[in-house]
Amino acid sequence: MKKYIVFMILAYATALSSCEDSKTSVPPETMTVSPSSATVKIKEVIGIHAVAYPKEANQQFVWASSNPAVATVSEEIIAGMSVGRVTGISEGNAVITVASAENASLKSETAITVYKVPTESIRVFDDVQVAPGEQKVVEIQVLPDGATDDELVWTSANPEVATVKDGVVTGIAIGGTTVTVALLADPSMNRTIKVDVGISFPFKGPHLISFAAPYVLSALNFDTGGEGVGYHDNSAGNSGPYNYRSANGDSNSPDVDIENNAYGGNVGWSAAGEWLAYSVDVIDEGDYSITAKVARSSGDCAFRITVDDVIHTNNMVAPSANDWQNWIDVKATPSIRLTAGRHRVVFHFNNDSNFLSMTFEKAN
Ligand SMILES: [Ca+2]
Ligand SMILES: [Ca+2]
What we know:
Strands 18, 20, 23, 25, 26 and 28 form a six-stranded mixed beta sheet that branches. This protein has three domains: 28-115, CATH 2.60.40.1080; 121-197, CATH 2.60.40.1080; 208-362, CATH 2.60.120.260. It is mainly beta. It has helices at 2-24, 244-247; strands at residues 30-34, 37-41, 45-53, 61-65, 71-78, 81-88, 92-100, 107-115, 121-124, 128-130, 135-137, 140-143, 152-156, 162-165, 168-171, 175-183, 186-197, 208-209, 215-218, 231-232, 258-259, 266-267, 275-282, 286-296, 300-307, 310-319, 323-338, 341-349, 354-362. One calcium ion binds at residues 233, 235, 237-239, 255, 257.
């Protein structure tokens, strides 16, 4: 029985192939090619379609370019049809000749004009924020789409802070720098992108600390990055529930307990072990004092501050003014020496005090 089936299949296949043979034996008499002319950008690829008649005739073609330095052509078979893929190489003119594979004298042509698209600009999007050891792709766009010259050269202003290769930035060390992207064919066309390397990043910053004037940093403007990065909060949700963070574009800090008040809002519902991080940028290197505004309904307010993971103040304890909104100034002593550049200041709660702000100013 099996043998019989095999025989039947073989017979069917033979019949099919003889049918194919009879098809290709129809000589092609005419042919068309479409389009008969086309303009192509350098690097652009277009398709040219050829058909031989009668339709039963051999649909195989031979493709050739009169000037491969201007435009090349290669054959691609799509759904049994022979398609010529023409690629623009350089400015100029070329003729693509399509000939019947069965009858070389039967041929048709497409006139190709290849043109250059001048680059107009490089568009950049956002600044880059990246952690040390992390990589981020810089989003840019060469305009217009299809510009002939779109090869780019990337450089970092400070490879000790961040390196860049083919548009991918790698964070090396905490700090700030810039990367520049320039058009290889015309380096005067370039854009510079700010790169921040850090564990967390300023919210509503930069927070610029200088000798010129005291800087009041609202407790609400702790760093972005979320739980464990910009803050640590023990309880789910915002007991405030003032939606200052999400209203200002940070939906990643939902658990910090923020309430509104006459001073723009404070962090409350705090507990020992909770903390808030603030990335500040010091302009003038030197000695600064940090004064925190805190409040509590009764008993002492207690907190400590670390700068770049080094303890700046141990447990600061100050008697409260016995009201959750009656703010007292607690100056962290001694003053702290800050070098110019980025620093991470962390306010640690040691009990359930309310926290309004920290003021940085030149130490006396
Ligand atoms: Ca909470
Ligand atoms: Ca809390």
